[in-house]
């Protein structure tokens, strides 16, 4: 019986027989794309509560609406925001800020003057301020000067799906390979296997190969479902996308192999995987653009492996990039991945 | 030219820091021979077997298998060895026959070997069961099935029945005896059960603190070190130690609780026992317990080390 075939089949069987793994690797990314995609492309009607702190004489202010009343600001093109004014004292207003019930506190004064209290780093508060201050100074939004963009590839969901695809590659390699390795080492199964004439190279090839196959199924399903729901399309080179997919798999398999090369304790492996995965998940621009980070950080973030993978997959999806464009990142990621493998195999503990 | 023994262990030492796990052990095993390494936990049995398996490297000494050496002929040695570890877990959601197929592929064996192995260990009806649903005994049988796939010349079994209930233990013993009968396999078995060693193995090597304490067949060991029979008794009033000498010849005596209780090792039970009972009757002592038995390996181990095998 063929050794490589048996090892490969065992990896696949272990994968498909674990409902939990199937959920997290196939269903979860699709649900995430659907959920976030819908949340950020649904109705443009929004509600905001504004805390109003009234000092003496504020009753003379004719601009700020009375307690518990609402004002709807906006137009058909940009959508409407309903501001609800809740009168309260300063302490209570601070409490509301802390609890996230409001992001903006108004203080009306006599003679129709108003002061706005908010954190300028909070984009939502800033937007509320601009809308309200224009509204109170009687500057309505001019509908005629707004043109709504409906071009494909500029929606949030277009940004999101390639990111989730890249993250899926990282997650299935890191958790799949590391977890299985540590589990088998812990069970002394690796030790039992190397006591036979099994070729170690076959074991490694079967792990990467099975991961690429299952990863390809996961990615295809994600693209198909989001194409069907959101009309997501691959505008660039399909071969280029396959190359980036392979490069991502090689790189993160190599990293997973290295991370799981020594320990036989699941808790330690969990910690190590999180240490590698979490910073990239947050910074590599999966859910939101990393261009909002300070410049000095961007120069680092751009070289994180997940950023390289996500940026290139995204440009293949959205910008119609050709195969030539992704050749350098393909070579770099695959090359480093192979290097990580080489180090991992040297320090690998079979027993 | 003299033929190489199947396994030759020559003055092998393995130290872990200041612990002398194996401290100068030599042994030779021939084809078809079943040998037990008997000793308590921490005696160095597992370390010795792991060195024969090639998993650990001896600090000193040499191990050769069919004249082949670890580090030079690894693949050839692995082809002739079958082993089972102290505890083996398999891939949870892989069926019994799939697990055997995986290991069979490592030896490039035909599919028919899976059937032979299943039959040998009596797991035919469990062939489609996930390994995680097997009982402890069934898991151990599967481990033996795997060890047996390549019909090895040498089986290395590290405590194959530890943690199993008596009936499962018996079944494992039967499987091993079958292997020996049908394929003339040689085996090294580590155990701290003396019944296991004496049932399965002709030759027993007693190990403690990394050294060989005694070796031979069960009969040889018992005869060489202290051939005798044991009387354990308990009476309601103490007996003077001098009396026991007057009653007849004994090899050793150990009295406790003001001489009310004791263990006497005698050469012949038939000679000593009637005299002892007669004395007890004459003195109107009340006998609350009496037990006579043949000396065992555990008694021998206590004589040699002052400790029980199972400690």
Shape of chain B: elongated
Largest beta sheet: strand ordering of chain B:
6-7-8-3-9-10
Q: Report strand order across the widest sheet of chain A.
A: 2-3-1-4-5
- Whole-angstrom Rg of chain B: 24 Å
Number of strands of chain B: 14
Uncertain segments of chain B are: none
- Cα(first) to Cα(last) distance of chain A is 26 Å
Question: In DSSP terms, counting alpha (H) and pi (I) runs of 4 or more, how many helices of chain A?
Answer: 12
CATH architecture of the largest domain in chain B: 3-Layer(aba) Sandwich
Give the % helix of chain B. 25-40%
- Most extensive interface, residues per chain? A-B, 23 and 29 residues
Mean pLDDT of chain A: 89
Strand content of chain A: 5-15%
Biggest pleated sheet of chain A? 5 strands, mixed
Provide a quick synopsis of the model.
The complex is a heterodimer of chains A (351) and B (311). By secondary structure, chain A is an alpha/beta fold.
